[in-house]
Amino acid sequence: MSLKTGFVVLLLCVPGLLGDEWAGAYTEKEICAIKGSTVKLQCSFTFPPTEDGRDIKVKETFWFTKYPEEDLRLDPQYFGGVQSECHGNNCSLTIADVRWSDEYTFRFTTNHSKGGFNVTPAVKVTVTDLKVQVTESRFRNMYDLKCVSSTCSPWSPSSYVWYKNGEEIPNEKSQLYKRGYDYINSYSCAVRGHEQDVSPPECMYWSCNKVVYYKRHICAIQGSSVDISCEYTSYVNTQTQFWFRTDSSDPGNPSIIEDPRYELPSETSGKSTLRINDVRQSDSAEYRFKFTFSYNFEWRSISPGSTLTVTAVQVQVMSVRVEDSHLVAQMLCHTSCFPEAPLSFVWHHNGAYINQGTIIEVTLSPGDYITCATQQVNDVTTSPVLYVLKRPSVSLNDTGDILEGRPLTLTCYIENFDYSSATVDYCWYKKKNVSSDDEVLSNDRQLVLPSIKSSDSAEYWCTVENQLGKKTSEPVFIDVQYAPRLPVISAAPSSEASQGSSVWLTCSSDANPQAKYSWWKRSEEQIGVKDLHRASATFNLTDLGLEASGDYVCVATSSRGSSNSSVRLQVKACSWSVTMATTVGSVAGLVLVLVVLVLTAFLVWRKKRSSKESRAKSSAGADCGEASTREQKEVVYSQVHFTTSSEGPVYANITPAMPRRHLVEESEDGVEYATVRKAR
To answer: What's the pLDDT tens digit per position in 90-149?
Structure first.
C-alpha cells in the first residue's frame, strides 16, 4: 500500500489504565487534522486471559466508522487509504490523505463466549484547512494578515512561515503579519515544520497574482483519464501559461504537453486544465501551473501543486482454507488510493464472469486464476492475474554434461502459467551436502551462472509464492565435471631412503570424473620418461638400489584431461662391514689407552714399594748383624701388539705373553719391566 506523506497526527493509548478485564483506552477523544494530511490512531486493550480453564485468544481486530461494524479496509470510501496493524495488544490505524471529519472505533473479537469488544467512545477526527485572514489595521493603509484554521486548531505552533506569491518571506515567524496595502501580490502561510500543509494564497484586493489548485491530491485508476485543474489571476494580462512536473530536470521547459496523451482543453479566462489520457503509474507526480506577464514577472511558487497518484486494481487475499484438496479463498478487490468517485468491481474466474462486488469467496483448484476489474465511465481496468500455483520444476539450458567454465542457466518453470500478467515471487536455494545449511541465491525467475565452477556442484531448487500459497520444486543435482587438478605426491617414510630399504609413493588428484593414475620415471641420460606400468594411486618400491634414485612422475588422467607432478627419490649407499669395522676399531683404541694407563700406574706403585722394602732391610741388617742375601726376582713381561690391515678397518689384538724370567744384577731398586712393542 502506498501512503501519502504529510502532517501526521499520532493518537496513543494508556496501557497502564487497563487490567485483565474487557477494556480499551485512547489518550485523546478528539483530534484536529489538516485536510490532506496523514492521521495515525492507536489503541491498547485487554480481556480476561481464561474462561473455564481455557485460554482466550484474539481472533480479529479492525476499525470502523458506522454500524453494523464493518472493517474500514473494506469500505469503498477508504480503499487503499488505510492501513491497520497490531503488535500484541496494541493496534494502530493509519489514514492517508484524510478528507473529512469522522468518528473511528476500534473493535477486537476473541474465542470467549462474549465474543468481542468495542473500545468506546470513538475517537473524533475533525478535518480543517489553514487560511489567511485579512483585516484592515487601525493604522492607515496597513493590514493585518493572520494565519488561522477554519474549524479547529491542529497544533500549538511556536513559529509560522509566510509566503509572497508562493515564495518564502525571510524572518517572518509570527502568526500575525503586518504590512501595507498590496493590490498586486498574494500571501499564504503554514506552520513551521508542516510546510506541506500551506494555506491557499489570499489577496488584499479582489485581483492579484495567485494560483489556486482545485485538488491537492488526485487518485486515478490506471488506464483512465484524469483532469488536473487550477484557477489563476494576475494583475495584468498573462503572456504564457503551462504545466510542468516538479521532478522535471527543467521545470521551465513546457515539454510536458508534447506527449500525445497530454492535452489542454479549451480554457476559460482564469482557469487551466491539464488532461492526461490513459494514465500510467509513471505519470504519478506533483504537477504545477506557471504563468508570466510583462515587467519580467513569473509565478515561481514553491507551494505544493496537485499530486497525482495512479493506482492499479488489485486482488487482496484476506483468508485461505483447504477443503477436500481445494482452496477456499476470501478476496477483496481494491485500489491503493482514494478515487474521486466510488468504484464498482466485477470478478472473473478462469476468464469467465462469476460475480460483482467488493468481496467474494470462491473455491479454487491448482492452475485456476482470478481477476477483478472496475469500470469508470468507458474505461475498464483489470487487476493482475492471481493463480493457484502448481508445483514448479527446474529446467537447464544445457542438457548434456556440465563442464567447468561454461555458462549455465536454471529456470523456474510453472506449467500453463501466464508470466506476462501474473505476479509471483521466486526464490532459489542451494545445498552442498546433507550437513550444510540451505543457501539463498536469488529472487529472480532464472538463476544465471556465467562461468560455473567445481564448487557449484550441489542440489538446486526453486520456490514460487503468491497470496494463495507457496510451492517448492524437486531438487536438481548439478554435477560439474572438470579435468584433474595438479596431483599431490607423498613419500613414506621419506623421499630420502637407504640402500636396501622400501618406499611407498602415493598420488592424489581432485577430479570429476575420478582420475586414473600412471607412474613414470624421468630418465637422467635422455629427455623423456620411462613407463613403470603402475596403474594405481600408490607405488611401492622395495629393496632399493642406488640406481632407484631419480624423479618419479605421477600422471592423473580422466575423460576431461590430465595433469602430472613429480617427486625426487634419493637412495644413499650403506655398507655394514665398514661401519662395524670402524666401530670396533674405535672401541679397541679406547681399550688400549685404558690398558697403558693402568700398567703405568701399576709400575710406579711397585717401584715405590720396592724402594721402601730395601731401605727397611738394610737398616735391620746393620742392627742385628744379619748378612744380606740376594733374592732373585721374577720379572713378568707383557706384550701388546698393534696390527694394521690394508684391506679393512684397524683391529686391535691384545694378547698376554708367556711369563719369562730374567736374571738381572742386583741393583738398589728392584724393577719389573714391561715390553711394549708396536707393529708398524
So the answer is: 999 988 878 888 899 999 999 999 999 999 999 999 988 889 999 888 777 788 999 998
> What are the angstrom distances between the C-alpha of 381 and each of 28, 220, 335?
41, 11, 11
Cell numbers at 621, concatenated: 741388617
166: its cell numbers = 508562493
Find the Cα–Cα–Cα–Cα dihedral 577, 580, 584, 587, rounded to 10°: 160
Complete DSSP assignment for 522-582: E-SSSSSEEE----SSEEEE-S--GGG-EEEEEEEEETTEEEEEEEEEEEE---HHHHHHH
Q: Cell numbers for 629, please give them.
A: 742375601
**Which band of pLDDT confidence, cut at 50, 70 and 90, is reported for residue 6?**
very low
The 3-class SS string of 137-187 reads: CCCCCEEEEEEEECCCCCCCCCCEEEEECCEECCCCCCCEEEEECCCCEEE
How far is residue 493's CA from residue 38's CA, in Å, rounded to a whole number?
A: 81
How far is residue 46's CA from residue 640's CA, in Å, rounded to a whole number?
Answer: 119
C-alpha cell read off for 384: 493482475
Nearest to 151 by CA among 122, 176, 126: 126
Predicted local confidence at residue 314, as pLDDT: 87
| Residue 493, preceding peptide bond in cis (omega within 30° of 0) | yes
Show Cβ contacts of residue 181 under 8 Å, excluding neighbours closer than 6 positions: 141, 142, 143, 204, 205
Mean pLDDT of the chain: 80
The pLDDT of 401-414, averaged and rounded, is: 93
Q: Are 654 and 592 in contact (CB under 8 A)?
A: yes
Residue 403, phi then psi, degrees to nearest 5:
-105, 140
Q: What distance, in Å, lies between the first and last C-alpha atoms of the chain?
A: 116
CB 424 within 8 A of CB 465: yes
Cα separation, 72 vs 41, in Å, equals: 13
Report strand pairing: 480-481 vs 402-403: parallel
DSSP SS3 for 292: strand
> How far apart are the C-alpha atoms of 600 and 401, rounded to whole Å?
93
pLDDT, tens digit, for every residue of 449-475?
999 999 999 999 999 999 999 999 999
- Grid cell for residue 644: 694394521
Sequence-ordered list of residues with C-beta below 8 angstroms from that of 388, at least 6 positions apart, any chain: 327, 364, 365, 366, 367, 368, 369, 468, 469
What is the tens place of the pLDDT at every residue in 540-562?
899 989 888 999 999 999 999 99
- pTM, full prediction: 0.61
Share of the chain above pLDDT 70, in %: 79
Residue 205 has pLDDT above 90, yes or no: no
Read off the C-alpha cell for 58: 484474539
Task: Provide the grid cell at 554.
Answer: 605421477
- What per-residue confidence (pLDDT) applies to 651? 37
Pairwise CA distance, residues 462 & 548, whole Å: 58
Whether residue 480 contacts residue 404, with contact meaning beta carbons closer than 8 Å, is answered with yes
